[in-house]
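Q: Got a minute? One more chain.
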Amino acid sequence: MPPHAPNGHALLRTGSRILEWNNRRAGEYAKARYGAFWGPILVAFTEATIERLVRLEQDVIDGPNECLLGFKTSLASELSMVAVAGAILAQIAVTSLSLPDIAEVHWIVRGFFACGLAFGLLSVQFAVMQQRTMGNLHQPSSVRAWLLANSYTKIGRESMEERHKVSFTAAFLTQIPYTMIEYGSAFLIVGLGLYFGYAWKKKLDTETGPQDNRNVFIMYIACTGVMVMQWMCAYFSKSTWRE
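A: Always. Here it is, folded:
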């Protein structure tokens, strides 16, 4: 190893500091670009889109043609994965609507399953539409032009400087299919929990045992809660952007 070459731990620490700085910059970027009023609102409701916007600004838009083509290829793979996941999610939601005694529980359970179905279908539709759009961009210059189109700063006003920044719309369109997957999964998980809870409280299907529904509900809540907590602990302790 050369005398001045950084070791692996130093590189990891440096990368962690860079990512932490980028995390903070996402909020600062939104405030600087969209103003003190709209910036925090956009971060609160579309944080993943803002983070993707900053990534595109830093890593893609001013890079060589290879970066633009790499972004297009990466996005195509992501959209294909999202389309498959959305189809699976929709199938699970349809099956959930046919669970035993589903008509006997509160209507909100069916509402959660219906929303999960809608989000799954929308994720597929949005992914296919976005993949088709990107598939029609055959040159790096076309990819760059699409990313820069409709760039706005203070809501509704465009400047010459803004025309060289990635548009919020472009980042939002590339992020929304995955967001639909997140919403759909959350609605299905909550819906199943409500279904098991109402099945226990209303004493539905007690032929196998009077406390079976209660036991299933407790196991579902415990297992789901433990896994979600483990994931959240690892996720928020990692100094990286949320995708």
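A: Helices lie at 8-45, 47-60, 65-96, 107-135, 140-148, 168-201, 212-237.
Q: Perfect, thanks.
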